[in-house]
Predict the structure.
Amino acid sequence: MKAVAFDYVRASSVEDAVDALGDDNVKVLAGGQSLVPLLNMRLARPAVLVDINRLAELSYLRRDNGNLVIGALTRHRTVERSPLVYEDIPLLAEALKYVGHVSIRNRGTFGGSLAHADPAAELPAVCVALDASLLVQGHDGVREIAARDFFLGPHRTALKPSELLISVRVPVPPAETGYSVQELSPRGNDLALVGAFAAVTVESDGTCAQARIAVAGAGPTPIRAVAVEQALTGQALTDSTIAAAVAELSVDPPDSIHAPASYRREMASVLTRRAIRTAVSR
Ligand SMILES: Cc1cc2nc3c(=O)[nH]c(=O)nc-3n(C[C@H](O)[C@H](O)[C@H](O)COP(=O)(O)OP(=O)(O)OC[C@H]3O[C@@H](n4cnc5c(N)ncnc54)[C@H](O)[C@@H]3O)c2cc1C
């Protein structure tokens, strides 16, 4: 099938792009890895596409005051291979290895993945786990949205149709932080049935100083496992304390053609336990 006819606007600046945005009939085109299939299947029928691919000012990675700041148009592969990401937030580099295939990561963008808001996607879950915040620019200026408030439901976000996501600020965890991504998917590099993302900071005496955990594919949005984090903090990190903490995990996955809800719920616990144990061992 072919997309329905649409008008095409190539933005030459962020302001130009924002000026062209308005209502649901206008869509931003970033890497096109999610939008173009939706257009071709006629599941999306925008009247206008605003192409932001020439906006070099939205493609960057930089350190800023204890954060890593990532421009919305930065390609997945650039983030995955960045030495800054390896040094500061290896959880992000690890998560990106699970995002589709290399050819998809060469085109897909950091901002596109967040704006697309697939509940099983890796980057939204990492951003929720690490307390990232998103900068969006609209007709009235720039506002900041915490990742935990950004995802409202499957493919639904707090972004208004008139707003462009311009950058993402991810706080760099303390140096003594181990990390892990654990995923279950029908085939390698498919979207996950369930995924668990953990960053655990360990004190010199082996107790947990801080845990940041999120689960993907187990509800309408990425789920921050706050109760698990609280149960771990201050505890000696043994198999039994980890198992007791994971018992606090509360997720409500839907049934799907790939697996019933009960299986996904069980796997969310198994993968979360594995992610914490692996993070601690690192
Ligand atoms: C075969 C295949 C496998 C995949 N597997 C995975 C996977 O395992 N995990 C995963 O997470 N993803 C996967 N993806 C999706 C991939 O990560 C996409 O890159 C990502 O979802 C969308 O990014 P994009 O830059 O391509 O955005 P686009 O497709 O261009 O846009 C997606 C949506 O976001 C909006 N948008 C994009 N950028 C902005 C912005 N700056 N401001 C406001 N709105 C914006 C668009 O209007 C559109 O609604 C897969 C894709 C394919 C084709």
User: Anything to note?
Assistant: The longest strand covers residues 194-202. The chain has a mean pLDDT of 96. Residues 27-35, 37, 72, 98-100, 104, 108-109, 111-113, 115-116, 118, 121-123, 159, 164-165, 189, 191 surround flavin-adenine dinucleotide (CB under 6 Å).
